[in-house]
Write a structure and sequence with these properties.
The structure is a homodimer of 68-residue chains. By secondary structure, chain A is mostly helical. In chain A, 59% of the residues lie in helices and 0% in strands. Chains A, B: GO terms for molecular function: DNA binding; DNA-binding transcription factor activity.
Chain lengths: 68, 68
């Protein structure tokens, strides 16, 4: 599977486990609220700084976002 | 430490462990050869697709690039 899609699936899985809405995750990560849906769909070639923001907002290490 | 710098240090560490030159890593990862030095210095906000290419070239899982 494409890495962007894999990442998006993992973000969605962890977000739902934490009981966060897409809007809440965007707020906690300080990224635009329209960005999360497209990330979760695997449409975004996210940068390392955005990856770090999402990990912090989900309270996980970055490596957890790439667990297989 | 800044995530870009942390990532750059880890890429350099793994590259040297594998005995690869910056040029060889760039070739294996199919990225521009001028890109690796600036990544290792922590100057680049690399994208997830570049992260994946570097991991494949180093023959490690992406999560290893974010080990602490």
């Amino acid at each position: 599977m494409d890495i962007k899609k894999k990442f998006g699936k993992q973000v969605k899985k962890l977000r739902l486990e934490k009981g966060l809405s897409q809007e809440k995750l965007a707020y906690e990560a300080d990224i635009d609220r329209t960005y999360i849906p497209s990330i979760e769909k695997g449409e975004r070639n996210v940068s390392i700084t955005v990856i770090e923001k999402i990990a912090k907002a989900l309270k996980v290490k970055i490596s957890v976002l790439f667990d297989e």
